[in-house]
Design brief:
Layout: H1 2-12, E1 21-23, H2 30-37, E2 45-49, H3 59-69, E3 74-77, H4 80-89, E4 97-99, H5 106-115, E5 124-127, H6 135-143, E6 149-154, E7 157-158, E8 161-162, H7 163-168, E9 177-181, H8 188-198, E10 201-204, H9 215-223, E11 228-231, E12 246-249, H10 254-266, H11 268-285, H12 288-302, H13 309-312
Parallel strand pairs: 1-2, 2-3, 3-4, 5-6, 5-10, 6-9, 10-11, 11-12
Antiparallel strand pairs: 7-8
């Protein structure tokens, strides 16, 4: 709440003019949103919403939530399922909800590809995530696939999840599993992207949550032209099997991981074709240029101004 008060005062007393508030998260905007709900703040507020909007079985609390959500002019959501769940909660109007593809910067990933030597390509599967990852299930899957190797890159801790403590128990247990605990450095993202690009296939094993956990890892692997094996997260806006770019695994199923890993290892041409389709999906339907266009159009629509594509593309 302290952050919300500080941010509200900072914005309310800005010397420069502005048209609206646009945020990657609603956190810190609570006071401004409440003021807008009371018609005491007149600038539109557009935010990215990472989960479905809450509702409550308590009638009074539910009325308060509906009143609070009135202060937002548009919720940009990552998943159609989040929109569906929000509408079923009846906490806001459909016109306030829009789904957009979170897209990678293809120029950045093209640079990674061009600077990474093809001749040092590895024969390993690569996991680079840190948030709510199900490492035990992933490792157990590889333990039964001894001819395939796994590299895990992750941080010591994320939130309440102690990745290092969890993975130390597996560190020396299996010869085909390598664990690297990494620290945040200026070149870390570039290094991890290179490791994914040199790998045979990207793997994303997550715990079940009500948001798009693992989405960034998925999109980055696709931008690098890699096939993907991923937990079957229903909140993902991309069905990797339907698009022919990877394999979906039920939550907590090591045997399914073993089967998928063996399939990729035994079918290199199919794996390569999956990677090509993944990159084409990024080029055609899901990248930072398309995202910028869609966000700009959304902001113009909210402000009731005519959208001029040439001005946003200059």
């Amino acid at each position: 709440m302290i952050l919300a008060i500080k941010l509200a005062f900072k914005i309310l007393f800005l010397d420069e003019s502005y048209d609206m508030i646009y945020g990657s998260t609603p956190h810190g905007l609570e006071l401004l949103v409440f003021l807008r709900s009371l018609c005491l703040y007149n600038k539109p507020i557009v935010i990215w919403q990472h989960r479905a909007l809450k509702s409550s079985t308590n009638p009074i609390r539910n009325l308060f939530l509906k009143f609070y959500y009135r202060g937002f002019d548009k919720f940009i959501m990552f998943s159609e399922l989040h929109i569906k769940e929000t509408l079923s909660n009846k906490t806001t109007r459909k016109s306030k909800l829009v789904q957009m593809h979170w897209g990678p910067d293809i120029n950045y990933f093209d640079k990674i590809i061009s600077e990474t030597k093809a001749e040092i390509a590895g024969n390993y599967f690569c996991s680079t995530g840190r948030e709510n990852r199900d490492f035990p299930t992933l490792i157990q899957g590889f333990a039964a696939s001894i001819n395939s190797s796994l590299r895990i890159y992750t941080t010591k801790q994320h939130g309440k999840m102690n990745n290092e403590k969890l993975l130390l128990d597996y560190g020396d247990k299996y010869n085909n599993v390598e664990v690297y605990i990494i620290e945040n450095t200026p070149n870390l993202n570039q290094f991890l992207s290179q490791e994914v690009y040199k790998s045979k296939c990207a793997v994303i094993s997550c715990h079940e949550h009500n948001y798009t956990v693992g989405l960034t890892s998925l999109l980055e692997a696709m931008a690098l032209g890699k096939a993907v094996i991923t937990s079957d997260n229903p909140y993902f806006p991309i069905d990797v099997e339907k698009e022919g770019i990877g394999i979906k695994i039920p939550y907590g199923d090591p045997a399914a991981w073993t089967e998928a890993v063996d399939f990729i290892s035994n079918n290199p041409e199919i794996c390569k074709e999956m990677g090509k389709k993944a990159r084409k999906f990024i080029d055609d339907r899901c990248n930072s240029d398309l995202l910028s266009f869609n966000v700009a159009k959304c902001l113009y629509d909210v402000s009731k101004r005519k959208f001029n594509y040439s001005s946003t593309n200059s």
